[in-house]
Specification:
It is a single chain. This protein is of the alpha+beta class and 132 residues long. It has one domain: Pleckstrin-homology domain (PH domain)/Phosphotyrosine-binding domain (PTB) (PH-domain like). The chain has two helices and ten strands; from the N terminus they run αββββββββββα. Strand 4 and strand 5 form a beta hairpin. The longest helix is centred in the C-terminal third of the chain and has 15 residues. The chain starts with a helix and ends in a 7-residue tail after the last helix.
Length: 132
């Protein structure tokens, strides 16, 4: 299944998720991740914690640096601190790790769980599933 369908089915429920309208563009995007599908930015944030969802991967800003990860390069995705985590740890095939901050959500419902579910489904669709 295409990541755009997964995003529509899973991420549309998040208050901070927006389908791409053609207006916002990730800063310094290098164009290696395919078509822009949408973006996630927690309602309480100032936009500096935005995650852009592409057909071929994710792009976000971490400590002032633009990070990009292709889905095909992700070996596994894990919650940083069990179900209470607002971070996801992306382990790449190269052994490299990235921490993806997902601070949104209300009460016990953390948006990180839905982003994790989205990534697990996309990896399964690629035949690279290693569910957390």
């Amino acid at each position: 299944m295409h990541p755009s369908i997964r995003a529509h089915r899973i991420l549309k429920r998040l208050a901070g998720y927006r389908n791409w309208t053609g207006e916002e563009v990730p800063p310094n995007h290098k164009g290696k991740l395919g078509d822009l599908i949408g973006s996630y930015s927690p309602e309480t944030g100032d936009g500096s914690e935005a995650i852009w969802i592409f057909s071929e991967g994710l792009c976000w800003i971490a400590e002032g640096v633009v990070a990009q990860v292709a889905y095909k390069d992700i070996e596994s995705v894990e919650l940083g601190d069990e179900k209470n985590s607002r971070n996801l740890r992306l382990r790449l095939n190269s052994g490299e790790q990235h921490l993806l901050s997902v601070p949104g959500g209300t009460g016990p419902f953390h948006d990180s769980l839905e982003i994790l579910r989205f990534l697990d489904r996309v990896l399964a669709d690629l035949g690279r599933a290693d569910p957390a």
